[in-house]
Amino acid sequence: MATLVWLRRECMKLYPERHIELQTEITEKEIPERLRVPIFKIAQESLNNVAKHSKAEWVDISLSKNGGGIELVVFDDGMGMAQS
Prior knowledge:
Layout: H1 2-14, E1 19-24, H2 33-54, E2 58-66, E3 69-76
Parallel strand pairs: 1-2
Antiparallel strand pairs: 2-3
């Protein structure tokens, strides 16, 4: 997805100390139009949270088909949230 490639590049410019890997196993044409913006927004907010809160150095983002759906996974090596 071209927008995720752009988002990764922009985040790495803003936060050069972070390494962001992006793996896409689905083309943009395979994603329904109505899901493209929400997928981008979720990835964007996830990277914002990494930058502001987790202090992660490594971030892995993957976008793939999962059965009849689409799966977006964002994984980082940062600090988790405290559970109460």
